[in-house]
Amino acid sequence: MDATPVASGAPAVVLLSGGLDSTTLLAYAVKAGFTAHALTFRYGQRHAVEVDAARRIARRFGAREHIVVDIDLRTFGGSALTSDEEVPKDRSPDEMRVGIPITYVPARNTIFLSYALAWSEVLGASEIFIGVNAVDYSGYPDCRPEYVAAYERMANLATRGAVEGTTPVHIRAPLLDLAKPEIIRLGLELGVDYAMTSSCYDPTPEGEACGRCDACRLRLDAFARVGTQDPARYA
Fold first, then answer.
1. How many Å is the Cα radius of gyration of the chain?
2. Alpha-carbon distance 16 to 107, whole Å?
3. Any residues with CB less than 8 A from the CB of 28 and at least 6 apart, and which?
4. Do 212 and 200 touch, CB atoms closer than 8 A?
């Protein structure tokens, strides 16, 4: 979470899911002058809609490279996103604030950051961007500031460049303390076209958002609070 300034054009690995937050994150990193290397995962999630969105978004914002990594978290299951469990629908804000939902994917951010850390070593990059958010998050334990800070400490114990003092690791989470409407306002200022993004946990085969899962409800509420219409396609 180090905010230390870096030279313009410095390489950075940006975790890009194709959703609202990570697209804003990529736009932010590019605007800040980083050379973005975007990293997306096809991890056994219920659909490929967000991966297709990530490809378009990486091109739109001029990522130097965009890698899509295949891993299969369906091997373990444990989440409605990586198993045949039903995705919760029509939950109230009060329900969403209680407990850790079945859409939490065990250790997902830890796994994603580990891949990002490996790539950053190869690139000689100190900067890793992740779009976690601790304000409007859905109870996920790996979206908290304590988690991000702990991962950064670990990364600086685990990599050659950090140990030798040449390439310290900075886990940058600029959206961490922003409410969802604030993230949208930031993205609009950065030129993000949110019609390109996909946040839904259970979209149609044509890529239309369900409008009823937690991610959709948080997103729709945020756009309403901004005073504009969500340009994403809904079923």
1. 17
2. 17
3. 129, 174, 175, 186, 190
4. no
12-29 tens-digit pLDDT: 999 999 999 999 999 999
Helix segments in the chain, DSSP class H:
20-31, 49-60, 93-96, 108-123, 145-158, 160-164, 180-189, 214-226
Q: Which residues, 6+ apart, have CB-to-CB distance to 109 below 8 Å?
A: 130, 132, 140, 142, 143, 147
Q: For residue 228, is pLDDT > 70?
A: yes
Q: Is the pLDDT of residue 2 over 60?
A: no
- Sequence spans of domains, the chain: 11-226
Q: Tokens 């850390």 map to which residue? A: 117
Sign of CA dihedral 87, 75, 15, 49: negative
CA angle 135, 170, 30 (to 5 degrees): 75
Mean pLDDT rounded to a whole number for the chain: 93
Q: Tokens at residue 231, please?
A: 């340009």
Tell me which amino acid residue 20 is: L
From the number of C-beta atoms within 10 Å of its C-beta (0-12, 13-18, 19+), residue 10 rates as middle
Q: Are 117 and 152 in contact (CB under 8 A)?
A: no
Three-class DSSP category at 116: helix
Cβ–Cβ contacts within 10 Å for residue 101, how many?
A: 19
Question: 138 or 103: which carries more pLDDT confidence?
Answer: 103
The class of domain 11-226 in CATH terms is alpha beta
Q: Write down the pTM of the prediction.
A: 0.94
What is the helix (H) or strand (E) element at residue 35, kind and residue range? strand 35-42
Cite the DSSP H helix spans in 32-96: 49-60, 93-96
What's the sign of the alpha-carbon dihedral 211, 217, 219, 225? positive
